[in-house]
Amino acid sequence: MQSGEAPIMKLLIIEDEEMLLNEIKQSLTESGYRCETASNFSEGFERLGQFHYNAVIVDITIPGGSGLSLIKNFKNRIGETAILIISAKDSIRDKITGFGLGADDYITKPFHMEELHARIFALLRRKSFDGANILTFGELTVDVVERSLRIHKIKITLTKKEYDLLLYLVINKNRVVSYESIAEHLWGDGYDPSENYATVHVHTNNLRKKISEHSKTEYIKTFHGSGYKWLNA
Amino acid sequence: MKLLQKTIRDYLRASFSILAITAAALFIFLRYEIVEEMNEQLELEVSLIIKYAKSGQFAKAPLMEIKKVKPDLKPVKIFGDSTIYDFLQGKYEDYHYIRVIENLNGDLFQITAMTSYIGWRQFYLSIAVVFSVVGLLLTLSGVAITLRSSKQIWSPFYQNLDAIRGFSANSSHNINLSKSNIYEFSELSKTLDELTERCRREYITLQQFTESASHEIQTPLSIIHAKLDRISRLGVNDEVQKLVVEAKQGTKRLSKINKRLLLLVKLDNKAGFEKTTLFLHEIVKTNIDNMRDLFENKSIALTLTTQPLIAEANKFLFETMLINLLSNALSYTPRGKGVAVILNYNSLTIVNDGVPLEFPEGNLFNRFVKGSTNNSSSGLGLAIVLQICKNYDWLVTHEFTQNRHIFRVKIN
Known about the structure:
The structure holds two protein chains of two kinds. Chain A is an alpha/beta fold. Chain A has helices spanning about 20-30, 40-50, 65-75, 90-100, 115-125, 160-170, 180-185, 200-210; strands at about 10-15, 35-40, 55-60, 60, 65, 80-85, 105-110, 135, 140-145, 150, 155, 175-180, 220-225, 225-230. Helix content of chain A is about 40%, strand content about 25%. In chain A, the strands form four sheets. A five-stranded parallel β-sheet of chain A has the order 2-1-3-6-7, sandwiched between helices. In chain A, a hairpin with a 3-residue loop joins β13 and β14. Chain A starts with 9 loop residues before the first strand and ends with a strand. The mean pLDDT of chain A is about 85. The mean pLDDT of chain B is about 85. The chains are: A alpha/beta, B alpha+beta. At the A-B interface, α1, α4, α7 and α8 of A face α3, α4, α5 and α6 of B.
């Protein structure tokens, strides 16, 4: 998520599966990040040694070594870099080791691209205080620190879920965010897929209603059967 | 029966049998010798009497009798036992005698000579007493020696037994077996050492295999997922969009099953889940708050009653258990009915309105068992609950009364 004034964030993606690497790169580039890639340990090692990145997305299992040892090697040098581990193993041990080495977040394969965007946004905001705290869309202002929404400077009261949903949609602006990805983002494993995401619809409709009370613009577009899209004003 | 009891029992049996046989043999042998000796002595006496009688002197001696008998009797020599009243002691005493009918100068005489001996009963008794004392001493000393040396010899064995009882293939270090200078035990220790090491190695291989298999499955799933995501962004029509979403749901479901199976494998293997002090009432409240809207949306009245409860457990595992139970209640509670969550000082209870189970209750916590109303469920949620409870020695129970399912987890 890049707001107009904020500097362009530089990301390094270290992933050996080329097809996945390209998808991640393309998806993040579309969102305004400058992405560089490495597909094995030595490439990653080289890039980390030469350049500075705002965030590194690293797969644990890469040819030539482990993503974890890569973090370990650059632990001192990449203090301000946000590190997101990608792993196919939902392994608690890897998580603990990763966090111990200085990783900031952990995402398990397969993931929704929307979720990856949300995680990177949160990490970058936490690590580099470069003004991404206020997001502005026309008459809408989202304050990520205060967790609030203002329309024409009027504060709109949102429930926790409505705010989380809003931010998730906003971060993934101009992308169709699937119901499933929203449900997983809001409730983790707790939601029941058999209810056809009825609760997702309820929250979205409430959010829409609250926005429409103060704005005429339609920000949330429904894609029937698949998801919602935040339209950039 | 313990080995020691058995060896002592066998030892006692053998000792007593040997003692009884030797006592009997001794008795028979001694009796034979004594009788022989007495017979020789009595024969000598009788031959002297006869010698004197032939020369006309009929000697008179105690315990000896010579009398004339009818001439039609045949000369014989017999030995026998008899009793004679001992007027000094006032009781009958056992005697051994020889009776000879002999022709002395043309007349037949019966000569009887007797000698006293200790009665056979006393004889038995003496031998029995001596052998009993010997037997008792042998037994006591034997048992004492066996017990003492066994204690020494077997102590490494019992220590090793404890070590093996506490052994888990999952443990990170080798089993620590006690050394013994007994050849058999040191061989056993060596074999056990090798066996446990092999177990550990095979376990690690299996775990690596499971993780690798999971990895290998998750990565292609990620690629499928990412590609579907890309397709959905190509401006396809609603119909294609819907198909893509359904395909994505399928991959997510597959990945979820995969992850859950992996968790079950880890729980089965008692993988090291780090324990911390958990304030269960807070965790329950947070998770219920997070899921409350899901219940509300189904018009299910959700009530929560909590008492503070603190336990040592892994947060991820407790939350997984709780969420699985809540999801189960959410899935199987009919619209408009109620769910109650009660956390008291030693248990977590989740009560939900519902219909009776469609399958035997015994299958409820089995893997891949699910009701027909919830097809999208993995059927692993309750199996995971059971396995997490087993991991902490918590008891999970289910009962169905008055159209209510009651799941209770006793937390120690």
